[in-house]
Write a structure and sequence with these properties.
Blueprint (H helix, E strand, L loop, with lengths): L17 H6 L10 H18 L6 E3 L3 H12 L5 E6 L2 H12 L3 E6 L8 H13 L6 E5 L1 E2 L4 E2 L2 H11 L4 E5 L18 E5 L11 E3 L1
Parallel strand pairs: 2-3, 2-4, 4-7, 7-8
Antiparallel strand pairs: 1-9, 5-6, 8-9
Helix pairs in contact: 3-4, 5-6
Length: 210
């Protein structure tokens, strides 16, 4: 049964190119055999290039939110002071993940439609340190899907490093990585998460994290 053409304009899932749809129609391979091993090795190398990193890139069978949860629970502990920089709904979600895990979260809320600034992050981190709560991590959204605003991530990362050098930089790159310039190693980012259904133009269900 044929389907009428669909003009899909939501942030994700995005329309799939014909080549991707055709690949999904292929027969299964043995997930413990040499064919799958070769596919996984090729994907790992390609993802490193896309992330612009020499670090290992892991592929999870999860949503982008699942990757953000993995980033928090594997790098922070309950009670850790965390600065969550939010410029919209998905920045709020990143902060909520850390709060539900039991972290001591300070939210730096920016008006929707605006990007965060380096000085504001520096001031927030300095205030946390002055209060005896130096940040263990900083949570930043690269591109905020709810507003379409892209943070100046290189500037924000540099400001965070200058104010709190030991803090880990955890980045939500779900809707930005692959669509706009991104430098995991060049911007000194510790953890970056993204999802298959946005600018990667693949079906939902995979999350990639470095």
């Amino acid at each position: 049964m044929s389907q009428p053409p669909m003009n899909l304009r939501v942030p994700g899932p995005t329309p799939l190119p014909d080549a991707i749809r055709a690949a999904g129609a292929r027969q299964m391979v043995n997930h413990r055999g040499p064919d799958f091993k070769a596919i996984l090795a090729r994907l790992a190398g390609g993802l490193q290039e896309a992330f612009r990193t020499r670090n290992e890139v892991l592929i999870l069978t999860a949503s982008g939110t699942g990757a953000l949860e993995a980033a928090v629970v594997n790098h922070c502990s309950p009670g850790d002071p965390i600065l969550a920089v939010s410029i919209g709904a998905f920045g709020d979600r990143f902060a909520a993940i850390a709060e539900r895990y039991g972290a001591d979260v300070t939210r730096l809320a920016v008006a929707w439609g605006q990007a965060a600034t380096g000085p504001a992050i520096g001031e927030a981190l300095a205030a946390m340190r002055a209060a005896g709560r130096p940040a263990r991590a900083v949570l930043i959204t690269h591109n905020e899907t709810s507003t379409g605003v892209t943070n100046p991530l290189s500037e924000l990362a540099a400001a965070a490093r200058a104010a709190e050098p030991e803090a880990l930089l955890l980045v939500d790159g779900i809707s930005g990585l692959g669509a706009v310039p991104f430098e995991t190693d060049g911007w000194d980012l510790d953890v970056v998460a993204t999802g298959s259904q946005k600018s990667w133009m693949c079906p939902p269900g995979l999350a990639m994290i470095s």
